[in-house]
Amino acid sequence: MKKITIAGILSILLLIVMLGFYLFPLYWMAATALKTRAQIFTMPPVFIFTPTLKNFTDVFISNRTGVDTQFGFFFRMSIIISVLSTFFSVTIGTMAAYSLSRFKIKGKGDLMFFILSTRMLPPIATLVPLYLLYINIHFTDTIHGMVLLYTMFNLGFTVWMMKSFIDEIPMEYEEAALVDGYTRFESFMKIVLPQAATGIATSAVFSLIASWNEFVFGSILTTRYARTVPPAVSVTLGIEGYEWGRIAATAFLFVLPVLIFTFLVRKSLLRGLTFGAIKK
């Protein structure tokens, strides 16, 4: 039986405190979503109360003040734009990473640095030229415009992430497949992609989170038809001011899909984040 030491007990207590520190905002958000407006503003704060689901129903249904929340529409826009941009960034990024990893390309080092440099510039620095460009080509407040924008910003990270994974896959596997009669594309699909599944999952999680939580471009480049949840939440006003209960309910529902997706790919994500940390 393993002996429990004082240091071990202190370590466990420290982990519990840290866990509580990081989970408390999530608890407070959920608690606020289940409170009435009077309970939310009660001082000192109420920790024991009768929960209500009114804030959750108000997210999708017009409340008694007659204000149409439209959050069902904003949720659908968030899902459509985030999923499509994640799919395209991972798909294009994986193919680009494979080309950079397997073929001799003139100026490959400069090209890789250029791809990396797209992540160095703060996105807000490109807001004005992008806004003017989108106005001229009529891409503002459109789904395809936002999907293209988020794909572009996630592509640099995906290429670098996937190239590091594909570099570790021995070329001998593909050479053997080519000898057996496979085409280059077939060897890529049947040999490389299964081996790089961990990197794909990791890239997909980070791309999805970046698209799902993006606020600045969504608030400036969209007004109604392609607006996502983050900029929509910021203007959640009722006749009595900010509807904090409804904002908390929206935020809680907004967090759930990413948490579920991350949980489903947690094993691949863990391997992806620790990839290359230990080498024989």
CATH topology of the largest domain: MetI-like fold
Highest CATH level, the class of the largest domain: Mainly Alpha
Q: Kindly give the count of domains.
A: 2
**Helicity level:** 55-70%
Biggest sheet features: 2 strands, antiparallel
The CATH architecture of the largest domain: Orthogonal Bundle
User: What is the assigned CATH homologous superfamily of the largest domain?
Assistant: MetI-like
Overall, the morphology is globular
Structural class: mainly alpha
Distance between the termini: 32 Å
Strand content is under 5%
Helix count equals: 14
Q: Mean pLDDT score, rounded?
A: 82
Report the order of strands and helices: HHHHHHHHHHHHEEHH
Question: How many E-type strands?
Answer: 2
Radius of gyration: 24 Å
User: Order of strands across the biggest sheet?
Assistant: 1-2
Low-confidence stretches: 63-68, 276-280
What does this molecule look like?
By secondary structure, the chain is mainly α. The chain folds into 2 domains: 6-60, no CATH class; 71-235, MetI-like fold (Orthogonal Bundle), CATH 1.10.3720.10. The protein has 14 helices and 2 strands. The chain has helices at residues 6-33, 37-40, 54-60, 71-102, 108-117, 127-136, 143-167, 171-179, 184-195, 197-213, 216-221, 229-233, 244-264, 266-273; strands at residues 237-238, 241-242. A two-stranded antiparallel sheet has the order 1-2. β1 and β2 form a beta hairpin. α3 (54-60) packs across α13 (244-264). The radius of gyration is 24 Å and the shape is globular. The chain starts with 5 loop residues before the first helix and ends in a 7-residue tail after the last helix.
